[in-house]
Design a protein that fits this description.
By secondary structure, the protein is of the alpha/beta class. The chain contains 16 helices and eight strands. Strand 3 and strand 4 form a beta hairpin.
C-alpha cells in the first residue's frame, strides 16, 4: 500500500479533510481496531441503573399515579404542586428537566384545565410519563445550585476535552505531563510542569513506518525507541486527531495514526495494570486549536506564530505565559529557527497541547 509522495514530503496531515466515506478496508484492520479499543478505552465501572418496566395502559397508568403520590410526603407534594401551579414558563425553565416544551406544556395544561390537584394529574400533560414525572418532582425538590451547575458544566467540558474520563482529584495532583504529537514522519513531545516550565522539548523522526508494509514489529521497535528517550511524568497526553477522509487513497495515513496511538497508549500505560488507572490520555486536537484561536471553520491552522511569540515573551516578559529555562532557551530558539522553513507542526503542537491541557483541564478544576 503506497502513500502519496505529497504526504511523505509534508509530514503532517490536516486533521479535517472532509467526511470519510465508506470504501474497502484492508485485511486485518478489524484486529487493529480491537487492539486500539482495548488499549485506549476504559470500560465504565459505574453501576448500571435498573429501570423497572412500566406498562402505560389506562389501568396501569392509574396505578402508577397512585404509586407516585406515595413516593412523596404530603409536605413535599404541596411544595411541588405550588411550583407547578404558580410558576411562569420562564421560572419553570430554571429547572433543567423542564426546559423547552415541557415547561410550556405545563402552563398550557394549567390554563386549559385549571391547577394541578395532585401529582397524578401531572401525568396527563403531554411528554410526562411515570419515570419523567418522578425525575421532575425530584428536581423541583432539589434544584441545582449555581456551584453545582458550574461543576456539572465543567465535567461535561472535561469529558469532551480528554479521554478516558479522569477524576478531578487526580488532575489537581498532577506535577508534570509529557505532551506527545505524532505525524507521518516524526514524533514530538514537550515535558512541562504545573508552573508551565518547559523541562524538555524535542522531536525524533521515524521514516520506516509508512513504507507500505505496516509490520507490527517495525512499529514496536520504532516507537519503543522513541519512548525510551521520554522523561517520566504523571500523565502522557496524546493528540486525538480523529481525521476522516473523502479520498480513500489517504486511508493509510489514518491507519498509521491509529496504530501509532495504540502503540503509544499500550507502551506508556505502565501503571494501568498496577492500580487500574490510566496514565495515558487523549486530548481533542480542535479543542487545543480553539484555545489558541487557530481554528478557521473546522480546519486548524499552524501554531508556529503562537510558539514564536511564547519564545519571545519568555525572554522579554517578567512573568511570561510559559517559562523556558535560561540554560535551554538559546537551544530551543535555535531548534525553532532551524525548523521554521519546514513547518514542523508536531513540534509546535506538542508544546501548545501541553499548555492547553494545564489551562483547560488542570487549572480550571482548582477553582
Amino acid at each position: 500500500m503506497n502513500v502519496p509522495s505529497l504526504l511523505l514530503a509534508g509530514g503532517r496531515v490536516p486533521a479535517i479533510l472532509g467526511r470519510w466515506r465508506c470504501f474497502p478496508v484492508p485485511l486485518g484492520f478489524s484486529l487493529f481496531q480491537g487492539l486500539h479499543n482495548s488499549c485506549c478505552r476504559k470500560k465504565s465501572t459505574a453501576p448500571k441503573k435498573i429501570i423497572p418496566h412500566v406498562d402505560f395502559s389506562d389501568e396501569n397508568a392509574k396505578e402508577s399515579g397512585k404509586a407516585l403520590d406515595k413516593l412523596f410526603s404530603s409536605e413535599q407534594q404541596a411544595s411541588i404542586l405550588h411550583v407547578l401551579n404558580t410558576a411562569s414558563n420562564k421560572e419553570l425553565e430554571a429547572f433543567t428537566l423542564l426546559r423547552g416544551k415541557k415547561s410550556l406544556s405545563i402552563v398550557e395544561h394549567r390554563e386549559k384545565f385549571g391547577p394541578f390537584q395532585n401529582l397524578e394529574s401531572l401525568m396527563n400533560v403531554p411528554l410526562f410519563q411515570y419515570k419523567t414525572t418522578i425525575q421532575v418532582c425530584n428536581s423541583i425538590l432539589n434544584p441545582e445550585t449555581g456551584g453545582k451547575k458550574r461543576k456539572l458544566q465543567e465535567n461535561r467540558l472535561l469529558r469532551k476535552l480528554i479521554k478516558p474520563e479522569i477524576g478531578r482529584e487526580r488532575l489537581k495532583a498532577i506535577n508534570s505531563i509529557v505532551s506527545i504529537v505524532s505525524g507521518t514522519r516524526r514524533i514530538a513531545w514537550a515535558h512541562l510542569d504545573r508552573k508551565l516550565a518547559v523541562l524538555d522539548w524535542q522531536q525524533t523522526e521515524y521514516c520506516r513506518l509508512m513504507k507500505g508494509t505496516y509490520l507490527s514489529s517495525v512499529y514496536l521497535e520504532e516507537i519503543s525507541s522513541v519512548i525510551s528517550k521520554m522523561p517520566k511524568a504523571d500523565f502522557y497526553v496524546l493528540e486525538k486527531t480523529g481525521p476522516s477522509f473523502q479520498n480513500s487513497s489517504l486511508f493509510p495515513v489514518l491507519l498509521h495514526f491509529h496504530i501509532t496511538e495504540a502503540m503509544l497508549c499500550a507502551l506508556l500505560n505502565t501503571t494501568f495494570t498496577q492500580d487500574g488507572h490510566h496514565q495515558v490520555l487523549s486530548m481533542n486536537r480542535n479543542a487545543v486549536g480553539r484555545h489558541f484561536e487557530l481554528m478557521i471553520g473546522d480546519t486548524r491552522t499552524s501554531g508556529k506564530e503562537v510558539v514564536k511569540q511564547l519564545l519571545s515573551e519568555s525572554v522579554l516578559k517578567e512573568e511570561p505565559r510559559v517559562f523556558f529555562p535560561l540554560d535551554k532557551i538559546v537551544h530551543y530558539r535555535q531548534m525553532f529557527s532551524s525548523t521554521e522553513q519546514y513547518r514542523v507542526e508536531e513540534l509546535y503542537d506538542s508544546l501548545l497541547q501541553a499548555i492547553a491541557f494545564y489551562e483547560l483541564a488542570v487549572f480550571n478544576t482548582e477553582s
